[in-house]
C-alpha cells in the first residue's frame, strides 16, 4: 500500500505542477494583454469614445434666386411655415414617435389622411400599440427568422379586423399619417412633417408646445415661387425634395443630406452648385444615451447665390403672347388643313454676346383644346428647316471653290436619271449667288451640292458622278455654324437633331436645301447669329451673371461672376464671302422680289434674314399626309445686329394661301423688341412689372397661369 | 483521525466570498446601463440569492463524504446525458425548452426559471472521469501501452458524446470547456508521456493540415465554412481578427468590449462611471465593467484573485492523499482555468468571442450554483484530507 502511494505521489505532483505552470502562463498572458489594451492603447480607446460624442448637423440655407437681365425678380423664395422633426442620435423608438404623432395630431390638421395612409402603415401602427399580442401570434419557426423577416411575418399576421377600427377614425388616421412622416426622418437631420398650408394658428400652437414634442421644431422654411407663372418656367426648371435614390453616394459625398432639395431640371439643375449655397454647420454634443447636451455653430451658412439671366422677361412675355396668338390664328383660319399643326417655336438672342433674350414654344394641345407653354421644345425638338439654311450652303460652295462669287446658274427643273424631277418653287431663270438667296433658288443649291459631289457637267436626265464623302464635307461646313452639333447653351440638355444616314446623291441635294437633316430652333438661331456676327459663333447663354444674395428682392447683390461672350469658333469662310451672303439676306427682307419683302420692307429697324419652307410628311395610321414646316431666320439692324432670331412652325397644311405664320411671328417679335427698346429709351426699364402681376394675383400658386394682358 | 474531518479551508472560502462580493458589486454598478427590458431585474440582488442557494448546497455536500459520489456517479451521468439529448431532440419542445441567440441550451420551468444542463454536466463529467480513472488505475497496476490506450479510450468514450451534444446546440464555449476538462484529466491520469506526446503531436498535426488546407484551397473551404453549421464560428473569427471592420456584425461585441476596457486605462474612470455600452454586461461581459471603472489596477487585482483561487485548488489537489480527490480537483482546475482564460481573453482580443460566463463573477443561476457545487466538493476533499506529520 505504502509503495503504491509512493508511486502516486511521485508522478501526480509533478504533473499537477505542470498543469499549474500552464495556468500560470495563461494568467500571465492575460495580465500582459490587459496592459497592452489598457495602458498602451488606452488613450486611443478614450479618443475613439470622445470622437463619437460630437455629431455635426448641416442645416439647409435658402436657395439662390433668379433675376432677368434688368434685375427683375423672376424666381423667388417664398417664406412658408414649416413643422420639422429631427430624430435624436440613434433614432427614436416607435413608441416615442407614436406619442409625438398623437400630440401633434391634436395641434395640426392633416388633410385627407386616409389618402396618405396605406394598409401597411395601419398595421405598423397597430403593431406598435399591441406588440406583445402581435409577437405571440408567431410560430416557433417564425421566431427564429432574421429580424426583418420576423417583422414582416408579424405584420402579415395582423388581420383586417384588427385594423378595421382605424378606417373611419379621422383622428387616428391623422396620427398614422404623421407617424409615417416621422419615420422617414434620419437621425439629426431635420425632416419636414408639414410645410404646405400650415396656418398661423397651427404654427403658434406647435411652437407653444415644443417642450412636449422632442425633436419637433418650427423653423422658417421657403418654397420656390416663379414670379411670372409659366413664363420661362420651362427653363427655370424645378427642384426635388430629397436626393435621387439611384445616386445617393454621389450627393452624400458632396455634403448633401438625404432630405435636401436639389435642382432637378433646367437652370435649377444646371446651376445647382451656384444656387445651393453653403449649409450652416452645427455641432451637437451628445452624451452616451444620445441626448443633445450642447450645440455650437461651427460654420455660419451662406445663402445660395443669385443668378441674373440674360432673358428680358418683359420681352419674353410679349413673345409668348405673339407666338400663341399667331398659332391660334393660323389654326383657326384653316382648322382642317392645319389639323396636324400644333407647335410654334421661337429663339431670340443677341448675336454678338450670345445672350438669349427670349425662348418660346407654344403648343396647341389637341386633346384638351388648350394652349400650353412648351418652351423646352426650342432645345428638344428638331425639324427640317427648309431654305432657311441656304446661307450655309452658299458659304460652303464659295469656301470650297466649287462656285465663285457672282457665279450664275440657270434655274430650271433638274432631273437626274432614275430620280424624280427637282426644282425651285418656280423656274427663276438666270440667278447668281445673291439672287439665289433673295429668291430662294433650290436649283442653285443643287448645283453647289452636285459640284461638291464632284459633278461639274450636269446634263438633264443623265446620271451624275458622285463622291459620297462630300456629305461629310458639307456637314463639316454646316457644323461650323452650329447646325447638327451642340450649340453649347448652359442648359442640362439639348438635342443636336437627326442626321440622315443614307449618303445618296439625291439626299445630298435635299440636304443643300434643308430637306434632309433636322435642326433645333436654337441651332438655327445660332446659325443666323453666326452669319450676322461676321462668322463668329458665340456660345448662347441663359445666365449672364452670378451675384451675391441680398435681403431685398428689388436690389441685386455684388457681382461674383460675369459670363463674357465666348467665341466657340470662327467659320472658315472668307469675310468677303460672308459679306455676299449678308447682302443676299438683306435683299430677302428689303428688296422687291425677296421672299420676305412684303412682310418686312416697311420695318424701320432694317432687318435681314432668310425664309424657309420644308416638306414634312406626317404619318397617321400608316397613311401619309403632306405638311410643311415654315421657318424664318433673321437679324436686325442689318449694319449693327443686336437681335437675331429663328422661328419654326412645323406641320402647317401644304396649301397655297397659307397664313404666313412664320413671317407674322418674325415681324411681331422684332416689333416687340424694338418697341420695348424705344419705350425704354424714353421711360427707362419698367421695373414694376412684377408688382403689377402680384397685385392681380396675390401671389397664390394657382393664379400663376399665363395672364399678362397688363403689358399690352 | 476522524476528528480532522471537520477541518475547513478558510483560505478558499475567503477567496470565493471575496469573488462573490466583487460579483454583486460589479452587477450593482452595471445595472443602470442595461437595456430597458432588463431594468426590471435587479441582478445584484438575484446574484446574492444564487450565492446563498449555492452556499446551502455546499453545506449539504459537506455532510457527506465525497467518496459517496462514486456510488451515484452513473445515475448522475445518465441524467446529464438524458437532459442533453432532450435538448438535442428539442423534446418536449416549447415552452419547456428555450432557445436564445440561436442556441438551444436551456430548460425552462414556470416557477424556477431557466436551467442550463451543460453547466451541471461539467461537474458530472469531472466526477465520472475521476471515478473511471481511479477504477482503472486500481485494476491496471502495471502500466503498459495497452492499458494506457484502454484508459484513453474510456475517457474519450465518456467525454466525447456530451461534448458533441453541446457543440451542436451550438455552444462553442461550453464545448471548449469540456475539452479543457478532459485534457487536464488526461494529463494527470498517469498515462505515460510517450502516449501523451503522441496525442499532442497528433492533434497538432491534424490542426496543421487543416490550416494548411485552408491556405492552399481557400475557395472551397471558405464556401464550406460559410454555408455549413460552421458559418457562425467562421464569422466570429473574422470579427475577432478585425473588430473595427465588422463592427456592425460579428465584431460588434469585441469592438465595444475593447473600447470599454481600453478606455479604463491605468486606474479606471471611477465608480459607476462607464461611457461605453457593452451588450451582455451583466453576464459574459462583466469583466469589462470592472476594467472600465477600475482600470488596469482593478482588473489585475481581480485576475490575481482568480489566480489565487486556482493556486488554492492546486494546493488542495496536492495535499489530498486520496487519488479520487486529486483527480476531482484537477478536473475543477481545468474547468475554472479555461473559463477564466477564455472569458477574459475574449474581451481583450486574445481569443475569439464565445458565450462563456466568468466563474463566480458573471450573473447566472445555473453557472453560479455549479461552480459553488464544485467548490463544495473541493472543500469536502480538503476537509477529509488526512495530514501526516512527515509527509
UniProtKB/TrEMBL annotation, chain A:
Keyword list, A-Z: Cell membrane, Cell shape, Cell wall biogenesis/degradation, Membrane, Peptidoglycan synthesis, Transmembrane, Transmembrane helix
Organism: Terrihalobacillus insolitus
Domain Penicillin-binding protein dimerisation: 60-294
Enzyme Commission identifier(s): 3.4.16.4
Residue ranges with Basic and acidic residues bias: 702-712
Gene3D superfamilies for this protein: DD-peptidase/beta-lactamase superfamily, Penicillin-binding protein 2a (Domain 2), Penicillin-binding protein, N-terminal non-catalytic domain, head sub-domain
Membrane topology: Single-pass membrane protein
Family that this chain belongs to: Belongs to the transpeptidase family.
InterPro entries: Beta-lactam/transpept, Beta-lactam/transpept-like, PBP_dimer, PBP_dimer_sf, PCN-bd_Tpept
Keyword ATP-binding belongs to the record: no
Primary localization: membrane
Stretches for region Disordered: 684-712
Subcellular location field: Cell membrane; Membrane
Protein name per Swiss-Prot or TrEMBL: serine-type D-Ala-D-Ala carboxypeptidase
GO cellular component entries: plasma membrane
Transmembrane annotation, as ranges: 12-41
Residues of the signal peptide: none
Known pathway: Cell wall biogenesis; peptidoglycan biosynthesis
Catalytic activity entry: Preferential cleavage: (Ac)2-L-Lys-D-Ala-|-D-Ala. Also transpeptidation of peptidyl-alanyl moieties that are N-acyl substituents of D-alanine
Highest taxon of the lineage: Bacteria
Single annotated GO MF: peptidoglycan L,D-transpeptidase activity
Domain Penicillin-binding protein transpeptidase intervals: 346-664
One of the GO BP terms on file: cell wall organization
Automatic annotation (TrEMBL), chain B:
PROSITE patterns in UniProt: PROKAR_LIPOPROTEIN
Pfam family, one: FTSW_RODA_SPOVE
Broad class of the protein's primary localization: membrane
InterPro entries: FtsW/RodA (IPR001182)
Any one Gene Ontology molecular-function term assigned to this protein's record: lipid-linked peptidoglycan transporter activity
Membrane topology, from the record: Multi-pass membrane protein
Biological processes annotated in GO: cell division; regulation of cell shape
Record's keyword terms, sorted: Cell shape, Membrane, Transmembrane, Transmembrane helix
Identification of the protein by name: Rod shape-determining protein RodA
GO cellular component, as recorded: cell division site; plasma membrane
Compartments reported by the entry: Membrane
Keyword Membrane (UniProt): yes
Transmembrane segments: 12-28, 48-66, 73-91, 149-166, 172-188, 195-217, 294-311, 323-341, 361-381
Top-level taxon: Bacteria
UniProt keyword Glycoprotein, yes or no: no
Amino acid at each position: 500500500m505504502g509503495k503504491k502511494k509512493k508511486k502516486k505521489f511521485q508522478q501526480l505532483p509533478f504533473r499537477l505542477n505542470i498543469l499549474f505552470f500552464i495556468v500560470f502562463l495563461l494568467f500571465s498572458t492575460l495580465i500582459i494583454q490587459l496592459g497592452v489594451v489598457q495602458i498602451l492603447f488606452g488613450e486611443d480607446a478614450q479618443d475613439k469614445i470622445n470622437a463619437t460624442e460630437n455629431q455635426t448637423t448641416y442645416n439647409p440655407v435658402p436657395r439662390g434666386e433668379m433675376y432677368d437681365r434688368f434685375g427683375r425678380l423672376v424666381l423667388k423664395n417664398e417664406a412658408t411655415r414649416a413643422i420639422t422633426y429631427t430624430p435624436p442620435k440613434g433614432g427614436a423608438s416607435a413608441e416615442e414617435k407614436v406619442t409625438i404623432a398623437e400630440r401633434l395630431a391634436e395641434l395640426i390638421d392633416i388633410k385627407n389622411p386616409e389618402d396618405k395612409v396605406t394598409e401597411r402603415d395601419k398595421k405598423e401602427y397597430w403593431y406598435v400599440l399591441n406588440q406583445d399580442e402581435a409577437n405571440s401570434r408567431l410560430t416557433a419557426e417564425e421566431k427564429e427568422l432574421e429580424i426583418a423577416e420576423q417583422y414582416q411575418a408579424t405584420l402579415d399576421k395582423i388581420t383586417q379586423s384588427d385594423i378595421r377600427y382605424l378606417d373611419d377614425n379621422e383622428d387616428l388616421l391623422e396620427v398614422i399619417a404623421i407617424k409615417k412622416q416621422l419615420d422617414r426622418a434620419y437621425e439629426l437631420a431635420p425632416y419636414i412633417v408639414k410645410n404646405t398650408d400650415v396656418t398661423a394658428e397651427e404654427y403658434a400652437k406647435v411652437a407653444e408646445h415644443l417642450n412636449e414634442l422632442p425633436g419637433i421644431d418650427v423653423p422658417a422654411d421657403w418654397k420656390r415661387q416663379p414670379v411670372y407663372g409659366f413664363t420661362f418656367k420651362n427653363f427655370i426648371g424645378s427642384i426635388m425634395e430629397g436626393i435621387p435614390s439611384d445616386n445617393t453616394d454621389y450627393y452624400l459625398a458632396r455634403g448633401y443630406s438625404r432630405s435636401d432639395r436639389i435642382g432637378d431640371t433646367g437652370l435649377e439643375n444646371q446651376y445647382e452648385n451656384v444656387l445651393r449655397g453653403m449649409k450652416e454647420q452645427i455641432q451637437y454634443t451628445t452624451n452616451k444615451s444620445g441626448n443633445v447636451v450642447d450645440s455650437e455653430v461651427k460654420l455660419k451658412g451662406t445663402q445660395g447665390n443669385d443668378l441674373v439671366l440674360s432673358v428680358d422677361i418683359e420681352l419674353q412675355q410679349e413673345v409668348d403672347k405673339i407666338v400663341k396668338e399667331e398659332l391660334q390664328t393660323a389654326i383657326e383660319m384653316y382648322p382642317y388643313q392645319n389639323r396636324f399643326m400644333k407647335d410654334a417655336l421661337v429663339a431670340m438672342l443677341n448675336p454678338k454676346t450670345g445672350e438669349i433674350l427670349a425662348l418660346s414654344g407654344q403648343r396647341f394641345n389637341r386633346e384638351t383644346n388648350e394652349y400650353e407653354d412648351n418652351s423646352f421644345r426650342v432645345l428638344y425638338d428638331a425639324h427640317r428647316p427648309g431654305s432657311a439654311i441656304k446661307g450655309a450652303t452658299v458659304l460652303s460652295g464659295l469656301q470650297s471653290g466649287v462656285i465663285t462669287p457672282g457665279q450664275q446658274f440657270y434655274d430650271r427643273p433638274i432631273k437626274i436619271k432614275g430620280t424624280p424631277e427637282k426644282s425651285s418653287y418656280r423656274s427663276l431663270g438666270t440667278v447668281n449667288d445673291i439672287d439665289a438667296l433673295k429668291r430662294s433658288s433650290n436649283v442653285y443649291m443643287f448645283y453647289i451640292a452636285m459640284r461638291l459631289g464632284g459633278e461639274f457637267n450636269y446634263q438633264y436626265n443623265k446620271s451624275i458622278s458622285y463622291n459620297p464623302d462630300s456629305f461629310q464635307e458639307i456637314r463639316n461646313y454646316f457644323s461650323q455654324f452650329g447646325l447638327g452639333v451642340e450649340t453649347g447653351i448652359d442648359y442640362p440638355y439639348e438635342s443636336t437633331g437627326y442626321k440622315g444616314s443614307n449618303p445618296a446623291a439625291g439626299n445630298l441635294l435635299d440636304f443643300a436645301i434643308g430637306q434632309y437633316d433636322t435642326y433645333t430652333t436654337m441651332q438655327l438661331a445660332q446659325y443666323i447669329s453666326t452669319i450676322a456676327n461676321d462668322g463668329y459663333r458665340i456660345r448662347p447663354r441663359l445666365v449672364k451673371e452670378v451675384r451675391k444674395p441680398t435681403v431685398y428682392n428689388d436690389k441685386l447683390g455684388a457681382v461674383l461672376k460675369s459670363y463674357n461672350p465666348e467665341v466657340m469658333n470662327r467659320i472658315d469662310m472668307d469675310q468677303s464671302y460672308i459679306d455676299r451672303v449678308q447682302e443676299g439676306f438683306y435683299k430677302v427682307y428689303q428688296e422687291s422680289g425677296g421672299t420676305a419683302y412684303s412682310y418686312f420692307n416697311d420695318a424701320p429697324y432694317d432687318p435681314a434674314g432668310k425664309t424657309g419652307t420644308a416638306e414634312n410628311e406626317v404619318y397617321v395610321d400608316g397613311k401619309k399626309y403632306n405638311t410643311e414646316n415654315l421657318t424664318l431666320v433673321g437679324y436686325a439692324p442689318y449694319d449693327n445686329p443686336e437681335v437675331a432670331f429663328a422661328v419654326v412652325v412645323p406641320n402647317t397644311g401644304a396649301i397655297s394661301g397659307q397664313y404666313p405664320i412664320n413671317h407674322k411671328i418674325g415681324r411681331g417679335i422684332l416689333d416687340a423688341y424694338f418697341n420695348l427698346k424705344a419705350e425704354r429709351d424714353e421711360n427707362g426699364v419698367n421695373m414694376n412689372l412684377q408688382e403689377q402681376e402680384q397685385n392681380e394675383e396675390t401671389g397664390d400658386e394657382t393664379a400663376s397661369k399665363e395672364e399678362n394682358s397688363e403689358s399690352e | 483521525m476522524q476528528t480532522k474531518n471537520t477541518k475547513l479551508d478558510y483560505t478558499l472560502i475567503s477567496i470565493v466570498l471575496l469573488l462573490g462580493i466583487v460579483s454583486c458589486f460589479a452587477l450593482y454598478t452595471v445595472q443602470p446601463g442595461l437595456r430597458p427590458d432588463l431594468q426590471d431585474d435587479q441582478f445584484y440582488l438575484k446574484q446574492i440569492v444564487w450565492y446563498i442557494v449555492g452556499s446551502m448546497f455546499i453545506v449539504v455536500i459537506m455532510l457527506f463524504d465525497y467518496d459517496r459520489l462514486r456510488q451515484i456517479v452513473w445515475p448522475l451521468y445518465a441524467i446529464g446525458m438524458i437532459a442533453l439529448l432532450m435538448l438535442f431532440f428539442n423534446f418536449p419542445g416549447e415552452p419547456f425548452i428555450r432557445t436564445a441567440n440561436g442556441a438551444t441550451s436551456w430548460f425552462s420551468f414556470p416557477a424556477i426559471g431557466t436551467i442550463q444542463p451543460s453547466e451541471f454536466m461539467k461537474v458530472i463529467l469531472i466526477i465520472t472521469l475521476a471515478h473511471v480513472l481511479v477504477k482503472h488505475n486500481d485494476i491496471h497496476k502495471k502500466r503498459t501501452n495497452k492499458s494506457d490506450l484502454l484508459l484513453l479510450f474510456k475517457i474519450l468514450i465518456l467525454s466525447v458524446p456530451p461534448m458533441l451534444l453541446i457543440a451542436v446546440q451550438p455552444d462553442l464555449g461550453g464545448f471548449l470547456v469540456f475539452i479543457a476538462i478532459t485534457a487536464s484529466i488526461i494529463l494527470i491520469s498517469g498515462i505515460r508521456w510517450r502516449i501523451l506526446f503522441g496525442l499532442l503531436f497528433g492533434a497538432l498535426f491534424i490542426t496543421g493540415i487543416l490550416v494548411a488546407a485552408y491556405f492552399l484551397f481557400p475557395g472551397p473551404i471558405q464556401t464550406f465554412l460559410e454555408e455549413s453549421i460552421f458559418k457562425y464560428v467562421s464569422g466570429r473569427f473574422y470579427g475577432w481578427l478585425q473588430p473595427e471592420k465588422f463592427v456592425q456584425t460579428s465584431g460588434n461585441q469585441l469592438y465595444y468590449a475593447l473600447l470599454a476596457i481600453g478606455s479604463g486605462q491605468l486606474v479606471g474612470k471611477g465608480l459607476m462611471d462607464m461611457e461605453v455600452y457593452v451588450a451582455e454586461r451583466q453576464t459574459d461581459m462583466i469583466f469589462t465593467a470592472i476594467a472600465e471603472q477600475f482600470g488596469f489596477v482593478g482588473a489585475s487585482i481581480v485576475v490575481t484573485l482568480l489566480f489565487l483561487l486556482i493556486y488554492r485548488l492546486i494546493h488542495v489537489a496536492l495535499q489530498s492523499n486520496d487519488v479520487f480527490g486529486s483527480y476531482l480537483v484537477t478536473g475543477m482546475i481545468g474547468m475554472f482555468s479555461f473559463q477564466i482564460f477564455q472569458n477574459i481573453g475574449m474581451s481583450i482580443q486574445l481569443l475569439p468571442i464565445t458565450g462563456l460566463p466568468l466563474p463566480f463573477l458573471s450573473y447566472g443561476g445555473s453557472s453560479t450554483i455549479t461552480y459553488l457545487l464544485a467548490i463544495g466538493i473541493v472543500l469536502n476533499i480538503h476537509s477529509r484530507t488526512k495530514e501526516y506529520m512527515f509527509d
